[in-house]
Amino acid sequence: MMNSIGLKQPFMLKAIGICATSLVFLFISCKRQLSHSDTRPPNILFIMSDDHAVNAISCYGSRLSDIVPTPNIDRIAREGMRLENCFCTNSICVPSRATILTGKYSHKNGVYTLSDALDPDQQNVVKILKQGGYQTSMIGKWHLHKEPSGFDYWNVLPGQGRYFNPVMTDHDSIIRTYNGYSADVITNLTIEWINNRDKEKPFFLMCHFKAPHEPWEYPDRLKDYLTDVEIPEPESLWEDKSHRSAGSREYGFTIETMAKRQVRENYHSEGAQDFEGLKTKEVRKKTYEIFLKRYLRTITAVDQNVGRLLNYLDENNLMDNTVIIYTSDQGYFLGEHNYIDKRWMYEESLRIPFLVRYPPDIKAGRVNDNIVINTDFAPTFLDYAGLNIPDDMQGRSFRVILKGETPADWRNSMYYRYWMHTTRPAHYGIRTKKYKLIFFYGLPLDMTGASKEPTKIGWELYDLEKDPKELKNVYNDQEYNEVIIELKKELLKKKQELGDTDEKYLELLNIQQEYF
Length: 516
Ligand code: CA
Fold this sequence. Notes:
Blueprint: H1 9-39, E1 43-49, H2 71-78, E2 81-83, E3 86-87, H3 93-102, H4 106-109, H5 125-131, E4 135-141, E5 153-157, E6 167-170, E7 175-177, H6 182-196, E8 203-208, H7 255-264, H8 280-315, E9 322-328, E10 333-334, E11 340-341, H9 347-350, E12 354-357, E13 366-368, E14 372-373, H10 377-385, H11 399-403, E15 413-418, E16 427-432, E17 435-440, E18 458-463, H12 481-498, H13 506-515
Parallel strand pairs: 1-8, 1-9, 2-13, 3-14, 4-5, 4-8
Antiparallel strand pairs: 2-12, 5-6, 6-7, 9-12, 10-11, 15-16, 16-17, 17-18
Helix pairs in contact: 6-8, 7-8
The protein binds calcium ion.
């Protein structure tokens, strides 16, 4: 049978049927897409460098900002938020990484020093994200001694790893050597993993650079970078430390110690052989210059690779459904107080960069000065994922802070503790927005890898509003007596709340009794 426009009836019905079915499919598929993007939690890209000081990120503003711009890292802040008061709770690589994964302080996750391993059986945020439907991945520097757990995919450097032609081990225990510079290789693998991921699931990806960790080897393309530039010195490079307490003033990893290492490790092409016959001041100056140029070249290599990652996300429509974070495991001294390295509770080592971009939540160009600590990272990831935060995590999600609202009961102080006790003595303390009180107890306790000799005991107080660079310890200044009483109370309260009560360390309890 033909209809009025000449099509056979059954064909017509079939066509109507196909059209109707197509419409239904189109509707379902639209609906699925809508519900997909409406309800699906965002991807999380966590980019972490090793030892990246706030002073070496141009958007933070420092003496180095104009000399070594970091435009790509800055872009995250420009299009998102920069945290001004983000701190680590134990300023050393391995413990900080364990804290980020567990949301717990060292005394709760058992990773106190460089020598401790994170037990793969311990609960961590990645396992929870994976159970909650995320595809999880870890690429680059791991450094937690035992194998990563909770990741669908991992490919990591063994221990510190190499800067050039890095060897990496993956989740199938396959060991491969990758040609090239570590930051370039880690970025290549990161992009490759994102490209090949299961696109039905949101991803949680940790991209961890080895740079700018010592010995600061940089790619050949940057060998002439900064050659003719004079690197500005920090005021405290020449600090007279007599204002400090006995607990700190004689200790530390100084630029002069570095000078010997530069010669030992043959930084000859950079002038390290010229130290002989130089006066102390010249050795410090010259060593500082060599150290900073090497360090800053690795920073530029990292920045270039952050640019590559952001370009990839741009091109693949992943910029606005991904929470992009840039941070470091701790801060770093770049000659301030005549120090290199980290570990101390002083600002350069305590403060860490934290830049985050996620347009649905975060308005562009925001800066926030609430006190955020690295135990807060894991709860924040879970908050973005819409998953429950376990009660035993000690941090708190700061997602609302990123949205621009500070909860009325947000913390006003943070507790810090460096356990390892080496040439940097064991200490703990409290920091508010205005003050920092540090107690150097100087005992190895039962820490693995610690020096056995106790060091001198001492208190230090810094008035951070008047003295942000910590050049004047005011602990013995009577004007601060009331402040000290309040801060000691707050310090003991924090220790109690966090369960860091030193019950098993009688020798420390005795010292505390005497000195508080
Ligand atoms: Ca580190």
